[in-house]
Amino acid sequence: MAVTSTPISGDVAIIYDNAGKAVTRRLNDVKVDATDEAVYDVAAGATGIASLQDLLMASVQRRAVSELEDI
Q1: Based on the structure, what is the number of domains in the chain?
Q2: pLDDT tens-digit readout, 45-71
Q3: Domain that holds residue 10
């Protein structure tokens, strides 16, 4: 059985450390063709979204959703 995978959507989560408790901020509708490096730069780069927060950024997570089809 051959299966194709078609990316259809994605999001990114920026996790901050707030005195030992994790705080998550999600950004929806990330372009599926954006590179991981570009997504990271927007989230955590020198002038990225994380730089606008007072909290310390702990990690960046990217989630991709794909449609699977039997061909």
Answers
A1: 1
A2: 888 999 999 999 999 999 999 999 998
A3: 3-70
